[in-house]
Amino acid sequence: MRKAIIEIEFSNQVEEIVKIDKVFSKVESIELIEILKLDFEKGLKVVLLNIEMKKEYTIDDIDLSDYAEIITILKRDENKYTCLVKAQLPLANYKDIEDLAKKLDLNIIWTTPSIFSKEKMVISVIGTNEELQKFLKAIKLAGKIKQISFQDADFEWQSALSCLTEKQKEVIIEAKKMGYYNYPRKIDTDKLAQKVGISKSTAIEHLRKAESRIIKNVFAGY
């Protein structure tokens, strides 16, 4: 199983249907938390979303498409809202979208990060190589794919370290154990280098590369 993170520039037709310009005139970003129900045949979707409004607006000002509604607001943190949202698109009215929905009815897991803003739309899915290839072929009907990244779908938090070389992993784990990331630090790079038996410059290089890879891997799509 692999995870694909795809950045998409939606077609004009899709933007018009979901009213991208109207929605994001007041919304900063929309982030998927979890899909609770997904029925491609009926065009039905029930999801948990984090909706961040622009500073001058509240959730009462939101302009969703005619096919979506906020069922309830579960949590508010300043201008950020966690909402239960239901959307049902009348697929019979949109032949191209109906065809897309059928093609997307695959044996995949819709996952995070899935982020929507005026600047970009990021969708993440998990599946076999065969299913992901079908998904990529289908999603092109929705617009232009701008960027794709793939990760192993480990389903374990430790998978954040799977992007590292063995030496990078050894150095950064030792650094964590010895208090390098505490504030104030309990160990400096000189002592860390001695502990793992490498030079100071090499230890610093391993740490910086490891930190960069972990951040890039964890925040892929953001």
Commentary on this structure:
With 222 residues, the chain is an alpha+beta fold. It has two domains: 2-152, no CATH class; 157-218, Arc Repressor Mutant, subunit A (Orthogonal Bundle), CATH 1.10.10. Helix content is 32%, strand content 34%. The chain has helices at residues 12-18, 20-23, 95-104, 129-139, 166-177, 189-196, 200-218, and strands spanning 2-10, 27-39, 44-53, 68-77, 80-88, 109-116, 121-127, 143-152. An eight-stranded antiparallel beta sheet has the order 4-5-3-2-6-7-1-8. A hairpin with a 4-residue loop joins strand 2 (27-39) and strand 3 (44-53). The longest helix is centred in the C-terminal third of the chain and has 19 residues, at 200-218. It is elongated, with a radius of gyration of 22 Å.
Present the secondary structure layout.
Elements: E1 2-10, H1 12-18, H2 20-23, E2 27-39, E3 44-53, E4 68-77, E5 80-88, H3 95-104, E6 109-116, E7 121-127, H4 129-139, E8 143-152, H5 166-177, H6 189-196, H7 200-218
Antiparallel strand pairs: 1-7, 1-8, 2-3, 2-6, 3-5, 4-5, 6-7
Helix pairs in contact: 5-6, 5-7, 6-7
Concise description?
The protein is α+β, with helices and mostly antiparallel strands and 222 residues long.
Major beta-sheet overview: 8 strands, antiparallel
- Total individual domains: 2
The pLDDT mean sits at: 87
- Radius of gyration from CA coordinates: 22 Å
